[in-house]
Specification:
signal, LppP/LprE lipoprotein, 4 helices, six-stranded antiparallel beta sheet
Length: about 140
């Protein structure tokens, strides 16, 4: 009887919350993709996913609003520095990218994970991040 009650309660909550169907192959375009989906809220959460939690460095100086924190690390041997920008929310991260305030180099790739914007400066890191995070722009070639 308890199982039936639990199943009924779970079903009711799901119906009230509204279920959504997510395509296994989302379309990615060259525009700023919505990063409002559940994701990281701190730079440290992203670092834990890519192995930067030991050698990542947070910048102690005050960043320019709306950025809350910045950091950098080299997650892969032979790779270059990757820069991280933590914003108050995923929506603000998307808005900040749309504003053009982040200077993106010709070979840089930008990704988001929730409220964190990730700027990869080498193709190797960009390729690995493409499997983990939401791409916002692709690596540009000369």
């Amino acid at each position: 009887m308890n199982r039936l009650l639990v199943l009924t309660s779970v079903s009711s909550v799901m119906l009230l919350a509204g279920c959504t169907t997510v395509s296994p192959d989302p379309e990615v375009t060259g525009t700023v993709a919505s990063s409002a989906a559940a994701g990281a809220t701190t730079i440290q959460e992203v670092w834990a996913k890519i192995g930067c939690d030991d050698d990542g460095r947070l910048d102690v100086s005050a960043p320019n609003p709306p950025v809350d924190h910045t950091g950098m690390c080299t997650p892969y041997e032979g790779g270059e520095l990757v820069f991280f920008y933590q914003l108050p929310s995923a929506d603000e991260a998307a808005d900040w990218l749309r504003s053009g305030k982040l200077e993106i180099g010709a070979r840089d790739a930008v990704f988001t994970d929730g409220a964190v914007v990730i700027l990869a400066t080498d193709a190797s890191s960009a390729q690995k991040f493409g499997e983990l995070f939401i791409p916002q722009s692709s690596v540009k070639q000369d």
